[in-house]
Amino acid sequence: MNGQSEARVSRRGFMGGAAALAASTIMSRYALAGSGGRAAGKPNSNFNGVQIGAITYSFRSMPSTAEDILKYLVQCGISSVELMGDPAERFAGLPQAPGGRGRQRQMTTEQKKAQQQRQQEQLKWRLSVSMDKYRALRKLYNDAGVNIHIVKFGSIGNAGMTDAEIDYYFNVAKALGARGITRELSEEAAKRLGPIADRHKIMIGFHNHTKITPTTYDGSMLSYGKYLGINFDVGHYVAGTSESPIPLIRKHHDRILSLHLKDRKVNNGPNVPFGQGDTPVALILQLVKREGWTFPCDIELEYKIPEGSDAVAEVTKCVQFCKEALA
C-alpha cells in the first residue's frame, strides 16, 4: 500500500481498491451471521495478536445492567470491554433518581432542587463507597472470560469537579482492572487531568467525534501528562475529515489507548455496516496486526439495526468481520 492510499479517503480510493476487496470478501461470508448460542466456554476475541473488544454503548437499545452487558459480550464472543460508567456505578449501588432515568422536557423549581439534592447524595456516595464492590464486578467479568480494559467516565475533569471525585474515578478504574478512562476531547480537562493521571498511572483517552483534524494531537493536548492518550474513533474521523485515519494512527500509535471501530462515509456521511462505508476498517486492523501494536480495537455499533435483528446479532457480525480481516 503506497503513502497516497493511506493519506486520503474517497469512494474511488478505498471502496474501489484494496479496502473494498477486503470488505466485500469478509461481509459476503458473514452477512447472515446471527446471535445464536455459542459453544460452552469463555470468549476469546484476540485474533492473531489484535484484541477486539466493544464499548457497551453498542448495547444501548437493550436492557443494560452490568449483568445484562456481560451476557451480551459472552454471546458475541468478546473477551474485553470498554465499560460505560453508568452500569458499573449502578452495580456498585449508586443512588438512582426516583422513577427511572427518563429525561424531563422542562424541570420545575422543585424538580431542580430535587436534582441538585440527588447530585449531592451521589457525590457523597462516590466519596464513601467501598472499592470492594467494583472488585466484585471485575471478578464477575473476569470469571466469565471478559477483561474490563477501559471504563468511560465522560465527565471526569469537568469544571467544578472536586479533586476527591476525580480520584474516585481513578480508583474505580484500578479496582476494575482497567488501564484507562475515556472522556471527550477537552484541552481544559487535559490540563487538569494530566498530573493526576500521572500520579495514578492510569491513562486518560480522549474520544473524538467529527470535529477533529489531522493535526489535533500535534498541539499541546497531550503535553500535560505522559498518561494522556487517545481514544481514536476512526469512523467519526473519516466522516469529519474525509481522510484516512491511518496516518494519524501511525503518527500517534504510542499514545493511543484504544480505537473505536465503526464504518462511516465521507462528508459527514452515515454509519453503515462494516464494509459498506468509506472507513478502511480491515486495513486498519491489518496494520495493527502487522506493527504488533497492543492497544484494543473496540467495536462501537452505531448504524441502524435492521428490522428483525438486535444489537447482539449486529455486534456479532462486526466481530466476525474483524476476525476474518485478521486471519
The span between the termini is: 18 Å
Count helical runs.
12
Q: What share of residues are in beta strands?
A: 5-15%
Helical fraction: 40-55%
Task: Return Rg in Å.
Answer: 20 Å
| Strands ordered across the widest β-sheet | 2-3-4-5-6-7-8-11
Shape: globular
Structural class: alpha/beta
Biggest sheet architecture: 8 strands, parallel, barrel
The CATH superfamily label reads Divalent-metal-dependent TIM barrel enzymes
In N-to-C order, the SSE pattern is: HHEEHEHHHEHEHEEHHEEEHEH
Total individual domains: 1
Give a written overview of the molecule.
The longest helix is centred in the middle third of the chain and has 18 residues, at 109-126. By secondary structure, this protein is α/β, with parallel strands linked by helices. It has a single domain (3-98, 105-325), classed as Divalent-metal-dependent TIM barrel enzymes (TIM Barrel, Alpha-Beta Barrel). The protein is globular. α3 crosses α12 (311-325). The chain has helices at 3-7, 18-30, 66-76, 85-92, 109-126, 132-143, 163-176, 187-200, 234-241, 246-252, 281-291, 311-325; strands spanning 46-47, 50-55, 80-84, 147-152, 180-184, 203-207, 228-233, 256-261, 263-264, 271-272, 297-299. It has twelve helices and eleven strands.
